[in-house]
Design goal:
alpha+beta, Urate Oxidase, eight-stranded antiparallel β-sheet, two-stranded antiparallel ribbon, GTP_cyclohydrolase_FolE2, GTP cyclohydrolase I activity, GTP cyclohydrolase FolE2, GTP_cyclohydrolase_FolE2/MptA
Amino acid sequence: MSADHPFRAADTRLPDVSVTDRPDFPLPLRWVGFEGVDLPVVLPRHGRLPARAGARVDLPAPAVKGIHMSRLYRLLDGLTDGQPVTASRLRAVLEAMVASHQDCGTTAAGVVLDIGLPIRRAALVTEGLAGWRSYPVQIRAKLRDGVFRIRMRVTVTYSSTCPCSAALARELVADGFAAAFDGDAVDPAAAAGWLRRHATLATPHAQRSEAEVEVDADLDDLMPERLIDLVEQALGTPVQAAVRRADEQAFAALNGAGQMFVEDAARRLRAMLDDRYQAPSIRVRHLESLHPHDVVAVAD
């Protein structure tokens, strides 16, 4: 807003009760701010992406009725200038937020960015076939008493086949096979024919599942795709975008080889991330197809 804008002069004449009034209950507040603001940002290697953003500061001065929301908004809006969002830029924004609220006694500020990160994934086996996946990425930056920290969380959707259900299904198939060939010499061709017709006499239950993985982010280079790749590698059965029958068969083979309880998934991720990231936090959720409820596991 330019200095000669007509609303600039009017601002000084309009009432500002956040300054002139006093709170009914003079108590400090840990955080005050907003969330869910539409904010397109640029990520390195990915260009401009739509995001939902939040910003907040602490309000330790009990006699101050309210913070200056518009100051936070304008500082946050500075991230839309077309330059990549980096850790150093986020720190500069947080420092400016704290400085803009010295009249509130503010010593802490935070910014949250929720982004859908599009990544193109090749089909498992079909040459030249690919499709897009959008991965939820959250970047949280916080500055408190001069100490800066940035955390990054990614959410990966995958398939999980229950090992217990698979064992029970195999038992039924084995019983059926034994009954079909009881006392007979098993001809390989006959056995193969029986399996083609009856190997799905029982099938294990599988379900779409989610892994939320949060780590301390690199202060110089935000690379959520690297973390996403590691999570998918650890789990082995990420959901697929584009498939033909051969890809679907390959996906079935991956599920058969990578059966996992929710505990297994959490441990796989922890083992993969321990030596690569600081302070990993893992939460996995299997949206059960056997039960009407979900099962979860958390590893810190």
